[in-house]
Amino acid sequence: MDERALVRRIKRLSAGQAPGVVLGIGDDAAVFRPADGEDLVFTTDMLVEGVHFERDSHRPSDVGHKALARGLSDVAAMGAVPRFCLVSLALAPWCGERWVDGFYRGLMGLARSTGTALIGGDLSHSDKVTCDVVACGAVPCGEALRRGGARVGDLIFVSGSLGASALGLKCRKGAAWRRHLRPEPRLALGSFLRETLRATAAMDLSDGVSLDLRRLCEESGVAAELDGSLPIYPGATVAQALHGGEDYELVFTVSRGTVVPAEFGGLALNCIGRMVAGKPGSVSWGGQPLAALGYDHFRK
Amino acid sequence: MDERALVRRIKRLSAGQAPGVVLGIGDDAAVFRPADGEDLVFTTDMLVEGVHFERDSHRPSDVGHKALARGLSDVAAMGAVPRFCLVSLALAPWCGERWVDGFYRGLMGLARSTGTALIGGDLSHSDKVTCDVVACGAVPCGEALRRGGARVGDLIFVSGSLGASALGLKCRKGAAWRRHLRPEPRLALGSFLRETLRATAAMDLSDGVSLDLRRLCEESGVAAELDGSLPIYPGATVAQALHGGEDYELVFTVSRGTVVPAEFGGLALNCIGRMVAGKPGSVSWGGQPLAALGYDHFRK
Hints:
6-stranded mixed beta sheet, globular, homodimer
């Protein structure tokens, strides 16, 4: 059972939903339309000690920052503006007040700088620290950027450079390690993609571009041809850039002819290929099939 | 560090919130007003293997049912109508497809019967199964039932009978055990309290009336005098009824003079006391101070 099969299973088991759900399971976030006005997007992300972070190497404020950053990265990928979050936290026996304070300080630092209100949550205990953050953002009705909107002929772009997080996780020092610990959700870029570039699809890179782009292509029913160029973080390997997760950059597609600036707010925007007709979800890189080796919790 | 101190700490650390938040940390659910129209209420609840359920004694469908029931019970306590939920689930190594199917079947059974759409979530892995459910409900603007609305002179009621879940957890058989495994959120009652009785405050009983009523009194700035009568589940002890958690009945207050029916939809509504002036949060039972011995994750 891999994650994809599991998502399909849950999608099937939850079929036949209530009205108001504009977009349900399977995208970066779900969209619910409560009434006239804006659409709210919701996303939820778990962080588990020993899986997503280590007690020894991750400061509590880094854990708090990252717990929210993951959700806000999904909000950014929808082209939405953050509204609020809820945080569920199961504490381990070793957690003291200092750890809890540090966690929420890190989380609230990012929350405040992005206009995200923490409006609730749940507290529990467990053997290992486990945290789940729900983030909600808003977009004008019907304008959320989805994974499924890419069309044959669209150009594929990524923001920033890739592989920093995987490199940081390996070397555990310097700027790459800080990028791993403190990812910055690309919120301003997400709004720019929606409002100005009118991107046809967007997604955040949490599990590696090889796997994430496959997901985007599957949802859009297209194949991707990557030309073999890739903005690689200085010092990172090609494999880290292709398959390393947690870069939290955005991958997006635009219609041919769209003028995409070389950078936005200091963040490079690079064209890495285009959408083509073919087996939905298949991705080639420099003419060869690209294996989706990105991170999957359930792959055996 | 107990749960109350922890909540206060988080409340302090998250002070200074964004607009739109009608009600934040500290109630059964948070309220966000996205635009004109309805208020949405959000609540999130974790379920941890070995803490909230055991692999051997709880069927996966029971775990799924309960995971959502806890959130919907909070939605009911706000007087809201369920809209949607998001489910984050970390699976343990022992979880197979059957367990996952059973979990979602149990959850979706309750979701469908209550009109709750499952619109998203997250999947992860951990040593122990850990699940976090976000439930969202809607109420007319400004009408959510809060914990903080009780006034001196108000009468205190509880629905149903208390102690069934604690009794079930002990004897592990019969109707009491089923009540423990499959709590029914009191959604119809919640709407009735809001629309018809105009309850001044309401809360669901998840940690025991002794502790939960103290929380309600603290929020309302009043004291409670319980007359010593209590609707006790057949076979349960007084201690189980007072301090046993997870009954998921509603405790609510109404202004003096409000006509409360003896039952609603087959569910008994019993007056158990009244709000009085006094130390906020203090509760007496039959003339004696009542210790808040209900469940607290963090009490040493």
